[in-house]
Amino acid sequence: MTMGDELLLLAMVPGRQRIRIRSDNRLRYALRASELADLCLAGRIAVGRRRIEVLDPRPVKDRRLSNVLQGLGAASPQPGLKDWLRRTPRSLAVEYLSRLEDQKAVRVRRWRDSSGRTRNDILSVDMPRRQALLTRLDGVVRSGSARSTADRNLTLAVLAQAAGLAPAAYPGLRGITDRRRMAALAATHRLTPAAAGVVPVADVELAAALTTGADILTRRLLGELSDLYADFTTGGHGLGHGLDSGGWSEGGPGGAGGTGHHGDGHADW
């Protein structure tokens, strides 16, 4: 799985009667950021102040990441981080849902509503796979130290925090302590200069995520994500509108992580 696959799997919350998708306007940008993180950790790109530089254009094992790498290499001029994230496709989250389906991590039923819009019923989730992912996340969140964890797991934890997925990973009253630990891990260090002053004071969780002691790439990604997320609250560029690329129809019967019947709520992306 790529880091993006893992983020979307974390966003899926099986319940007693339906499978909910913990999603808002942040998630697709976090998915886009995760692709850069994966490529950087693989030594294929470097994210500089002005542009994203391709260090090694050879394909990687994952086809989607190879396509992203090829797109970065073919771009002229090479894009900066801010521009790259702002050009996140509206369909990205649904594309990642298809990836999880291909990996048999989820089972999906697609249908069209009366307006002709495609809906996605999440019928089941591979719960052992999701639990293994949560165990990895626990290793970061409960360690209390960024230095004792792998870079990839730490980056995943910080991006999940920034995307608002802590309640999905650690839901309800039982998850309060771990949600606080997740925020505390991210709040270990002061805001980096690139991120300082970007986050609205009211956005406590995101501000905490930006104070992470993760590597420079993670902090750069979070700095730019915070700028995008600030638009949701200030209305600066209207990024919160027109995100629909299909819809989630939550719930479904049977299967590991499946539920008793279809939920009646829809969460549009």
Task: Chart the SSEs and their pairings.
Elements: H1 3-11, E1 12-14, E2 19-21, H2 27-41, E3 45-47, E4 52-54, H3 63-74, H4 81-86, H5 92-102, E5 106-112, E6 118-125, H6 127-141, H7 151-162, H8 166-169, H9 176-186, H10 204-209, H11 216-234, E7 247-251, E8 262-268
Parallel strand pairs: 6-7
Antiparallel strand pairs: 1-2, 3-4, 5-6, 7-8
Helix pairs in contact: 1-2, 1-5, 1-7, 2-7, 2-11, 6-7, 7-11
Question: Overview of this structure, please?
Answer:
The chain has helices at 3-11, 27-41, 63-74, 81-86, 92-102, 127-141, 151-162, 166-169, 176-186, 204-209, 216-234, and strands spanning 12-14, 19-21, 45-47, 52-54, 106-112, 118-125, 247-251, 262-268. Helix 2 (27-41) packs antiparallel against helix 7 and helix 2 runs antiparallel to helix 11. It has 269 residues and is of the alpha+beta class. Strand 5 (106-112) and strand 6 (118-125) form a beta hairpin. Mean pLDDT is 75; it is low at 189-214, 236-246 and 249-269. The protein is globular and about 50 Å long. The longest helix has 19 residues, at 216-234.
